[in-house]
Amino acid sequence: MSTLLLNLDFGEPPPKKALEGNAKHQKFVRKRRFLERRGFLNKKKQPPNNVPKLHSEPAKKGVTPQVDGAWKISPLPKKKKTADSSSGSERSLDKKASVPWLTPAPSQKTGSVVAKADLLEEFQSSLPEIKSPPTRPQKKNPQKNPIQKNTPHNSTLARSENKCSGVSQKTPRKMVAIDCEMVGTGPKGHVSSLARCSIVNYNGDVLYDEYILPPCHIVDYRTRWSGIRKQHMVNATPFKIARGQILKILTGKIVVGHAIHNDFKALQYFHPKSLTRDTSHIPPLNRKADCPENATMSLKHLTKKLLNRDIQAGKSGHSSVEDAQATMELYKLVEVEWEQYLAQNSPKD
């Protein structure tokens, strides 16, 4: 019976130990394969020739204690650039080979330093490309200079054009001739009111010619002399509007006319004497016509004598345009002589 008991007691345990050993071995193999896939065991097998002095030297301020069989090093001073580059390459390899859940917290700082070192290297490598663009604006500058050089030339041309236009505007473009036709208003038509106004330039071109409606009732149209008829007043311009249009033309100009004070009176306007030329009071013009110098000669007589042309003929009345053109032509005959006289004896306004 004792032998049987011994067989029963020691027969079962051996297979249990074998099973337990197999399970531990399989677990170890699984862990080993897992660590090999992660590369942790390969790191241990590498020869420690890369950092021979770290294990032999005592711990320093920049070295952290060993964790899981690996030493972690803090960044070296910035003065040694070669050491920073070599340590940066080694740390990049360690970062790839290490498992994130096995590495201690200080390794994150080293990783950030390595990343910064990589950024610095990229920045330094890109510096030559940044320095090259300043050469391009230097090529563009010469193209801008001709434009800047041309601007003064263009300005001088503009000034010269302005000067030429200014000279041409002084004389004769600032000189006009005027003639007005009147009708009778007021008691028995004895008041002369403006009914037509014509203005021509130095060359005789018509600048203004309008029939004008007087503000008062017309008593006498004076058609034999004025040429105005009732039908002309149907679409005539009101006096106030016409007066404003006429004064815009006369302002600042030399105005030539024959007995021009009558025209200004009808316009209810006073023009400066220094800018007024009255052909009825120009002695050189009378001398040319073999008339007394101080006599007041009619426009019709002077035109016939000096221009050999008939105006104000017939019963249809006068033409203010024709009279204004004749007045300008008469003044041109003595313009140089009379302007020199006025320059020496300027009339007072």
From TrEMBL:
UniProt lists compositionally biased (Low complexity) regions at 143-152
Basic residues bias locations: 24-46
Q: Which UniProt keywords apply?
A: Exonuclease, Hydrolase, Nuclease, Nucleus
The record's section on SMART domains has:
EXOIII
**Region span, Disordered:** 1-112, 125-170
Q: Where does this protein reside within or beyond the cell?
A: Nucleus, Nucleolus
* Compositional bias per record (Basic and acidic residues), positions renumbered to this chain: 14-23
In terms of CDD domains, this protein maps to: ISG20
Q: Supply one GO molecular-function term.
A: 3'-5'-RNA exonuclease activity
GO CC, alphabetical:
nucleolus
Q: Start and end of every Exonuclease domain?
A: 174-340
Top-level lineage group: Eukaryota
Give me the stretches of Polar residues compositional bias: 153-170
Instruction: Tell me what this protein is called.
Output: Interferon-stimulated 20 kDa exonuclease-like 2
